[in-house]
Amino acid sequence: MILRERFCHHLPGKPFGVEAQYKNLMDLLKQTAVHGESNSVLIVGPRGAGKTMLLKSVLKELTEMKQVKENLLQVHLNGLLQTDDKIALKEVTRQLKLENVVGDKVFGSFAENLAFLLEALRKGSRSSSRPVLFILDEFDLFAHHRNQTLLYNLLDVAQSAQTPVAIVGLTCRLDVLELLEKRVKSRFSHRQIHLLNTFGFKEYVEIFQQQLTLPKEFPDGRFAQEWNQNIQSLCKDKTVEDILQKHFNSSKDFRSLHMLLMLTLSQVTVSNRNIGLTDLLAASRLCTMDSKANVLHGLSVLEFCLIIAMKHLNSIYEGEPFNFEMVYNEFQKFIQRRTHSMHNFEKPVILKAFEHLHQLELIKPMDGASTRTQKEYQLVKLLLDSSQIMDALQKYPHCPTEVQLWASSSLE
User: Fold this and answer.
1) How big is the chain by its Cα radius of gyration, in Å?
2) With contact defined as beta carbons under 8 Å apart, do 206 and 231 qualify?
3) Can you spell out the DSSP letters for 372-411?
């Protein structure tokens, strides 16, 4: 446990291969934090590209400067949480610790309220005013607020140089500027920092090694040396390369790689001091685990039989939708022809099992299906493919042999 905590504490926080973007963002925020200049910028990139990591690493370096640490105020807003401007303003007041200053004051407008908050932070002249950094995560969602009042007033403050503010928006939408009203767009600086995962597999392996390598200043030097040697030999292993290639092909973002690394590191204990190939394989299996196939392992034998009946119907009718009666008839054929050990359930029991599969979202009703239709005749579609069913069947505990043979048999 201690080893994991130490390791996580020393994980490198700087994103890989974005030195130019890092310098650009650092210069912009330094202008606000040190020189009192107002700025606005958007960080744009797909999910998992490292937008938040880039911002956090810049802020970490910035707040290590004494002048910045004492003065810079940060306000973090998220479009998923602050769903309207009233909630956002309350959150700004809370994060700036100005609830007592505001008290029971009544403001005529949003702009007046925001101006009062920023005025309360002043310490004499504009040059000595405390700079405020506004971080708007899911920036595009703020553009859907009524009249875009929050964005307009924040950008208006930045442009009019009333108080030194920096507005940093994070979004995964490339067309985000098209969502802004004309008056908002005219006040935005149009600075954009783009993050794209353009690295190849060779760089991906380098990132893997870099993230796992312990720094020289790690408290236990002997352990760090032993650990780093193990990581180097691990990266040269052909099986490890194959695992990483599989992950790289499916998703090469930082988030999925970090998930793989954290699951691997969770195997580290006092007795198991180094990670090995088996740890990485286990973590890889967890990352690529099929959630729907896992649900199948918890089904009763009857429910699994209904899934197999649907699999056969899918093959017979080439993916066309089916209803409960068709599944029931297919199951009855199996009972009559193939088994003596399998109990023949009553129809209401089988219908209940069918409805349970619907609740588990393993089947879904067809769009536009009439609610007036009897549930036995409502058309549904199976949300599993044949390979998922067969893989789950192999791992299904105590599955009757006849059910396995039925599942793997040709069309009936």
Assistant:
1) 29
2) no
3) TS-GGG--EEE---HHHHHHHHHH-TT--HHHHHHHHS--
DSSP reduced 3-state for 122: coil
Residue reference for tokens 């005025």? 119
Q: What local confidence, expressed as pLDDT, does residue 70 receive?
A: 77
87: Cβ–Cβ under 8 A, 6 or more apart, which residues? Answer: 81
Q: Which two tokens stand for residue 90?
A: 């309350």
User: Exposed/middle/buried for 8, CB within 10 Å: 0-12, 13-18, 19+?
Assistant: exposed
Phi, psi of 119 (to 5 degrees): -65, -35
CB 291 within 8 A of CB 360: no
At residue 369, the pLDDT reads 57
d(CA 242, CA 300): 36
Distance CA 302, CA 198 (A): 49
The pTM of this model reads 0.63
Q: What is the pLDDT of residue 34?
A: 85
pLDDT at 3 (0 to 100): 43
Helix (H, G, I), strand (E, B) or coil at 363: strand
pLDDT along the chain (412 residues), means of 10: 42 62 90 87 87 90 84 90 87 82 68 74 58 91 86 83 85 90 88 83 86 85 87 88 86 82 86 84 80 79 89 85 90 77 80 90 76 80 84 81 80 48
CB 84 within 8 A of CB 146: yes
Distance CA 346, CA 332 (A): 11
> What length does the chain have?
412
The dihedral built from the CA positions of residue 273, 279, 283 and 286, taken in this order, carries a sign that is: negative
